[in-house]
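Why this split exists: single-chain examples teach little about how molecules sit against one another. For that reason, every record in the complexes split bundles all components of an assembly together and asks for one structure covering all of them. Below is a record exactly as it appears in the raw files.
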Amino acid sequence: MIKDNVAIRNIINQFWLACIITLVVAVVASFLMGDVLIGLTIVLASVVWGIVATRWIKKSQQNVKEEFETNLHTGINTLTVECLENMAISSSNELPPLVESMNQIQAVISDASTKLHQSFNGLTENSSLQSEITLEIIEQLHTKDENDKEALVFDKFSSETSNVLSDYVDLTVNVSDKGIEAANKVQDMNEQMDVMFGLLEQVKFIADQTGLLALNASIEAARAGELGRGFAVVADEVRSLADKSSVLNDQIHKNVCLSKEMLSETNELVSQIASLEMNQALEAKDNLDSMITDLDKVSCSVAKSLDVSSGISKSIQSDVANAVMALQYEDMVSQLVVHVRSWLEDLGHGVNSVQPLLGKSDIGFILEKINTVLQQQIAHQPASRSAVAATSVDQGDVELF
Amino acid sequence: MSVISAFTDNNEVLVISVKGAFDFSMLNDFRQAYSCDMDKSTKVVIDMRDTTSINSSALGMLLNMQRFLEKEDGEIAIINCNQVVEKIFNITHFNKKFRIE
């Protein structure tokens, strides 16, 4: 357009130039010819011709311009209408599936959320159960000791075993004590037996001597003849008594020997009773000590493990609580989906109300209608921009349920 | 002789040494050692340096000795015990009746 303007101006300038030249030529010619009137007429004619030509050119330019613009407008209208038609078609094609997608999203999320809720409930229950069982185990490991204080079952057991061992050792010592006492008495008895043997020896000697004396008495009695006959009888009696005495002595000796034998057997038995090896007791004591040490270790590690387990339970519960809170996302996403869907539906309605007008009304009316629809939409959703602006569950204002 | 006794310190201390295994076979010798003639004030010491082992009869003998001599708990000393013997004295609480060194 600008180029044309410049070109037109150039032409106009050239025309006026041509006019001036013509004027000059005319003036010169008139001078030359001597007829100023012809010259002036020619000049006038050329000026008028120039003015008319210029105006004619301008007008024709204007017409061209107007024609051009009208063509342009018509072309734009057609394009616009075509565009709007295509937009309408495209929207009609794509909006329903979008709405459907929104519905599907909602359904999937709802389903997943329900399942997650169930899982977490199950998790919490099981964790509680585990805690309970752990406490039960602790219960069973504890009992009351003799001072009615809480103590581990193991401790009570090991202390009772310790007592049993102690009693056994005391018994052993006691038995040995009495045993040795008995052995000493046996030894004393043995010595008495030996004394008895000594006495018996003496008695034997006396008996033997008595016999000899009686023999001598008999001999003397025989020498004395008749007078010694009474004496001889007495002597014989004494000899026979001495013999009996000897026999008894031998018997007593035998019995004492027997007694001594029995004492010796008794001594043997007593030695067995009194001589108990202490090894068993020593071993038992060692085993008991190491068992107590081990039990202490077990006790400590059990206590530690229970602490850790209890801490883990708490941690599980806190994790589950966080997860349940995070499930609030379902609520948030639902809201978002509802908003998106309602917007899409509004869009769809807008398109539907405009579509029938296309091709039937002029472009101005159509555009006005579209504008009205859009304004209505904007008026409907003032809150949509700020609705659910939260982007994370932390920010969102949700309650736990 | 497996049991040796000797007086020391101007007859104020009687030291009885037991060599080898202190068991029932020592009964008579040990008894003789402590049954000898002495004052009530004489201290008695049992030296176990050469004692290899003891069984319960030895414990019985020691108790009978204490009773015979009419000594109080802690008056009679037992010295130079080896580890096993000391252990036995511990679990039998003999450390209350005798001075174990």
